[in-house]
Amino acid sequence: MAKTGMERLQELKKDVFRCIHCKACRFAYSGEPDRKGIGEFTGKQGTVLYEGMVDSCPAGIEYGWEAFWNAGKIWIARSILNGDLEFSEEVRDVLMPCITCGQCSAQCENKIPTVDIIESLRAALIESGVPMIEKHQLVNRLVKELNNPYGGAKDERMKWAKDAGLSKYINNKDAKIGYYVGCTASYRQVEVAIATAKLFDLLGMNFTLLDDEVCCGSPFFRIGAVDTAQELMNTNLENFKHLDKLYFSCAGCYRTFTIDYPKWMPEGEELPFKTQHAFELISDLISVPKKKKELPGKIDEIKKKLKAKPDKRLEAELKGLEAEYERIKDFKGEIKFKPNKELKGKVVTYHDPCHTGRHFAIDMEQNMIKKSENLMFDMRKIDKMIEDWFDIPRIILRKLEEDVGIKFTEMYRIKMNSMCCGAGGGVRAGYPDFSIRTASLRCDEANAIGADFLTTECPFCWRNLYDANEMYEHGMKVMGVLEMISKYDLLDIIEKPEF
Amino acid sequence: MSYKLPDEKDLEAMIGIVGKNYATNNKAITASYLAKSVMGLESQIPDIVVRPKYPEEIRKILLYCSAEKIAVSPVSAGLSGGFACPTIKPGGVLLDLSRMDRIIEIDEDNRYVVVEPGVTNGQLWAYMAKNYPDWAPPIADGAPPAATVMGDAIDRGFSLYTSSVGPQGDNFMCAEIVFPNGDVIRTGSWALPFAKPFYKYGLGPDMWSFLMGSQGAMGVVTKVAVKIYPHPKFKTVVAWGMSNPHDMQDLTLEVGKQEFGISHNTVMVQGGNYPLVMTRWPKDKIPHNYEFFEKIGVSRWWMNWECWAQTQEELDYVVNRINSMAEDYKKNRAKDPDAMKPWELHPKQIASRMKKPNKIAIPYAFWEAGYLFITWYTPWNDCAQFADMYCKAMEKYGFPPVMWIASIERCRQAICMPIVCFDSTKQSDLEKVQEMNRETTEYGLKQGWLNYRPDPFIHIEAYYKASMYWKYLRAFKKLVDPNMIMHPGRLALP
């Protein structure tokens, strides 16, 4: 039996009570006051000083009241737990305009899982009988009727694949690998779905698209409609259970399957398949062959040093490298990119989707903390793991710079400190104006470094950034990284991978 | 004293002053202003929150609330002076001053910056680092980045220059204050129309000092002029380890007494004991035995001197002088000379200690779920006795004995800060903290030590013991706040 929102909130009580209301959570780079930036930039949403710490909680920036910044919400949770405050529509209207981007959690020195707390609060709020806001009621109704929150017809979910000549992959019974497309790429950003499926096709992957795929449930986990989310989860688990591995092109779907499902599944049950985002596959095809060539030399070098003089740190490093080599030694496949005149010299920047970036990093951190016996020592490992995680899309972008000639330039706020696009947490559906203004703030940041292309790896971020780019005339092209590779025909396969 | 519980009519009045977007009695919003940790455990949910932008709005709010006998508690924006002294009983109106966040003026010749109360440490530091890199504001070292510059003043706090130049209150030249009687007063040279805020004691007896440490119990500070100081590029940290607080105290005093050319260059002089390192991690995920910390190079007690100088030669001179004095102390006067040793800090440790503002004080809630600073001021050469007494008390009550001590004005005074790490989900822990606070307060006051930020219920004893002083404090408050509406309960007022 799955837990209720209130039960989850009770479980998180100690985390809630760790908040000291220091408010470091409102800033990106709250621990780097001396960080050098790009100075002041006046964009479409006003002037921001991209130096040191920068206010980065979208709801706090939009609404101003303490309750909308994260620390305020944690103290609302504490009041609920203490019985000083009851759920009401007033409380709902403060809790809902949070994008659950997790910036606050990334900044917290007390490692408070803020997104978990806010989602549990929302779930408990809905359980208490407080009605959802109207727009959330609408998407909740739509998903129940049509299996997607956009109102798209059920039988049109795979229309994009048919139109793109990829019908052979629909319900492909031979395949043990699936591509879970998600609602946004199926009904809205079909460019992302087509690009991803075509890349898989080029790489020789035998995969399946299931036309009885339903919404992953992400928006409903976020807005507290946990019953709806769990129904969708159960349908998906049933539909995909025969597969070994599931690929994703949507950050939200990937996060939901990988992080949320195990939390909401009955205790003791595990996901029946492995999950991976398509960009991890592309990144591996660039980085692993290189590592495979370099590692034996590095291992020999350390062995020589150890022979001359024992050293515990080197021994540990050797052990790690040997394990890494063991993991990748049978890996097959290598790619590079073709040069492209149209893209050469173009400034390309990358927006980290919260769902694939920070949320995964925080989840890794929380899991490592749980397992650790000496966190002072393990914290370095956690930091390294997070750095490696955020490097995955950057491996692709650096390779594009090397082979294609794009100029990959980072925005000021990146990785754990990345500014959200404004779409998540039910905010795009519930509070569209605020959502687009937040996306425009992010577009301002890309404008500040002179970006021609604002890339990302999530169709939901893509949508919001695209709309803000159009609406506020930021003058860039918004594109998925894999979409860029597919659209400009950049893929050059050196060795076909084995799946 | 009884106060009116604000109602819808009062909310309408507030909206009439600041506009509908900046006054509310939304229960979720009012609850979000709670802060039962770090500096106090008495926070109560206010009835109305108002976010004014201009002094004139504040004047109207105070006049209204005074007439209606509604309690008013101002918070600047961050943890220092703001969320550190939130609304307590009887609730009332909370003034959130975070919209007043302008950096108004920086004068490099007279060396001051004029800021509004909502300007945070992080904001001012980044602005000056970009635009005035040779100067730095006296922001609190260790207070979170969202703490405010003004809040630190009103709390008589501690800043990164305090060890060198003196108490944080001395860094404030002039202020503009709105009183509940409707008067707006400007202190120091600012009292004279058109004068720069260049002199604190401009027109004789200084009224600003009545506001220092007032924690919003007198009026609302709407603007302050704060000294800025050179921000030289040659910096390092010198640290020495020892086995006991007495060697830490006596060596530091010897260095402090050198003053010219040595301790004037030591911007942060702070030390503590090894539980200060241990309790930054969860209780069940870090070894508790000292042997572990010894292995990684942490002494039982230590002191660091953060040294800033204009040239490398000057920096080398200061570092060498501190080290040679420490060697001499170890050889001739140390209680436990064998345990005294220089602490060779890794460059990353040095960089981390020099980062301003930093988050160094935040993770003590990671140990369990909450912590409290019960901070005291003592004469410097009492700080070891204080540490002995308090560490024993913390152990007696089942808390780890975490102690942080820093020098004020070249060891004229000490700020002694036991960090009580506890589980705030447990009522029994909360009761133990308060019981220990009561017991140690009784002892501390007998020694003539002062509470840095008086707890309105426990440290009130200090005011009862200083009854004549309290009488005049009360009289001054009555003058500016005739209906005693400002932050009732703070400073044992009314």
CATH class categorisation of the largest domain in chain B: Alpha Beta
Helix content of chain A: 40-55%
| Architecture per CATH nomenclature, i.e. the level-2 architecture of the largest domain in chain B | 3-Layer(aba) Sandwich
CATH superfamily of the largest domain in chain B: FAD-linked oxidases, C-terminal domain
Radius of gyration of chain A: 23 Å
Question: How many helices of chain A does DSSP assign?
Answer: 22
Q: Helical percent range of chain B?
A: 25-40%
Average residue-wise pLDDT of chain B: 93
Topology-level CATH name of the largest domain in chain A: Rossmann fold
Task: Supply the number of structural domains of chain A.
Answer: 3
The largest β sheet of chain A comes out as: 4 strands, parallel
Question: Could you write a compact summary of the structure shown?
Answer:
Chain A has 499 residues and is α/β, with parallel strands linked by helices. Helix content of chain A is 52%, strand content 10%. In chain A, helix 15 (278-308) packs across helix 18.
